[in-house]
Fold each of these.
Amino acid sequence: MTDVQALVVGAGPTGLTLAGELALRGISCRVLEQRAEESNLTRAFGVHARTLEQLDMRGLADPLVGQGIQVGEIRPTFGWSSVRLPMRHPESRFPFVLIVPQARTEALLAQHVKALGVPVERGSMVIDVRDDDRGVTVTIEGRDGVRTERADYVIGCDGAHSRVRRSMGVGFSGSTYDTSILLADLRLADADTMAVRTYLGRDGVVLMPPFGDGWVRAVIWDRRRQHVPLDEPLGIDEVTESLNRLAGHDLGVREMRWSTRFRNQRRQADAYRKGRVFLAGDAAHVHSPLGALGMNTGIQDAMNLGWKIAAAIHGHAAPWLLDSYHTERHPVGTAALRLTDLLQRISIAPPPVRAVRPFLARGALAIPAISDTLRRRVAGLSIAYPPRDPRHAHDWEGGRVPDARLSTGRLYEALHHGRFLLVRRAGANTADTTGWDGRVDSAETADPTFPALTLVRPDGYAAWAGDDPGSARTAITQWCGPARHPSTPV
């Protein structure tokens, strides 16, 4: 007997997204958060197109877009020279990077899980996690002392120093960068509120996304300050000196309301699953903030995992489904680490490389194939998962399904309930989905680029595609479990 079907540890964007995915499917869950109060600290500030698309699949993207700034390009400056990486995605409803403080993203997700009836228990620190064949025992230190609880599944979304991961005995492979990072929230005399300013100087790099209220976040890698102790206070004079030197001119710092130092890491959990315990977000991967991939990757972890755990609890999941979380998401985390590490090394490169950076960057980004590949990788639009049977897979299987126009509206709107969606191209033979009510919805599109039949997963990727209705029913059985008899509960 368990106290709850799922415990989510951590109330950041990843944990809240995951809790929403579970509750949407009728799973009893609770979120445990060590912080006693909601955080107004912004660590992440960029939301990329694929994350917005997945939030759109739950009706959450438009309210968030209304609170942020839409940036259509990233423009690094190398002293006297600038280059441009366009982020205007023609294939997406969100052709931009959304600059919005993490606190606003968390607040929106918190409202979502509250509306779904998910309790968030603050001031509760997980001390230990132990799983067995029947469930997971969690030891929790809360306001009323230490207690234990049982859950069918536990998901650790509790950050880089995850206690869940440590309890699992899972390695966190990687290393720590030598260069410490300075963070500060600043008001500038000439603050550009509509663009992310980036400066790559001789001694490091500055990244300054705007918050939209006259303030900017300064993210500073300064080689001259890399050995300053992390506990030494960071004042406005030190921040101003680093900023102006790296930018090559006076940026007009007028006020600072918050600052800190931290040591950045590049690490990844060796396994995202161990028995009935899973890892997501920063508990599974941490890396350089260059590229703004951390929170995005975590939210996408949650979108991949939530429906799979729900299917297992409901008894619909094939034996391989829960293992597919690691199989699909671990390579995505690895790719994020490699990309951010490359950007980090270019930004703080040694003198011979710094001398040629402007020419290499301008030359590379002038090649459409390179520019487009980088744009799609940063935005998450190129992510694809391996098909179940690579030998006989349709080209669409495992790939991102575009937000096509359906006879009833947009495809992503049809995913708001979090169910699978069988999309039939107009004029093609249909497949009978009787027996999968509550698990599979049906829709029709006139889009000629679509296969005859496409089984769309709840996270917006193609589980199966093809022409044969019989094969479609086989795929539905594989992904969604056997069709139920009319008298069998969902």
Amino acid sequence: MAKRKWLILAVVVAVAGVFVALGLNRDTQVQHFTAKVERGDIHDVVEATGTINSVITVQVGSQVSGTIAKLNADFNSRVHKGDVVALIDPALFKGALLQASADLKNSEANLAAARANLEKAKAALVQTKADYDRAVGLTKDGVMSKQQLDLAKSNYDAANASVDAAAANITQAEAQVSLKEAAVAVAQTNLDYTVIRSPIDGTVVARNVDVGQTVAASLQAPTIFTIAQDLTKMWVYAKTDESDVDNIKVGKTVTFKVDALPKQAFQGVVSQIRMNPTTVQSVVTYDTIIEFANPELKLFPGMTAYVTIPVATAQNALKLPNTALRYKPPLAPEEILALYKRFGIEGVEGQHAGDNSAAADGGMLASTGAQNLPRAPKQETAVVWKLHPDNTMEPVKVSLGITDHAYTEVSSVLRGELKEAEEVIIRSVAPKSQILGGIRR
């Protein structure tokens, strides 16, 4: 029995020793996570967010101030060009028109009186001229004195001046008539403006006043209705980043979705890229206009559209996961440079162990890029790390093509070999004892 107990104890100690040895070995070995090199299609797209709008939207306002007496349209009302959609109380404007008409008639009467005075002045001129001519003859014959001749001459000159004054009074009266006619026209126009008509055929998408409300047009025309011309043909105003503008081509077919119908995709066509930039917190965007048909009126103005614009497609391409392109091995810089030199890789910068960051739990090395940073220029080449069956790593330099932000096309292999189904490292986990400031010791 004593020997048996000692035998069991020896076995337990041996097993414990094996586990301890395995645990120590595991704690001192870096664990790699890999992904396979695949072959397939890659679709490079530009994703943007936009707003749905009607092609033509008209804000119907009021040229005159007053109280809304009647509304003939409401939200979603279908209206035609020339339809009366609202009426402003016309009482004050009718009174102004009557007053202007009375002033016009008064000025016309003054014009008639001025013309009569001209005729009277002309008759007086004829009489004084005849008196002056007789006085001239009688003075030569010695019948009339020089003083009487001067008096006749003075009367003739005064009559001549009266004719000129009467003619001037007619011109002034005619000007007053024109002025009063203009006042009548203005009063009539203001009265006509109390009847508000639809300028286009369309649908009322907004009503901003109620009956009895007073609108003031002294500073700017108040908006009463907003009318969309044709909701069966609409636009998406998509905000696209400045780095994507060159990749978007007019006439390209795009797809988009809305929150109201998340399972349905809609199609449109890029019709314009407007050259009016918008800058928000140093981010520059441009409006890309996308035309689409809305025959069933499922989409409303103002909806948010999530737009996907295809840019390029690579078929049956060798592709790498983007996590493999961001991977940095947990090695010291001199070790990485030695591996680069060993496999003939030159001109690679930024792939040093000092760029890695150790996670707090388990020492997992970060392999994802920083977020919320300015968009970096497109990377043309990269170094990926291939994992061999004996757990050794080999750097492979590749030339990159298009990306769908999950996978990137391998245009060509510049240094080393890379084939379909081979394993590339996407992340490494090292013991905490080997990580100090993100560098393996």
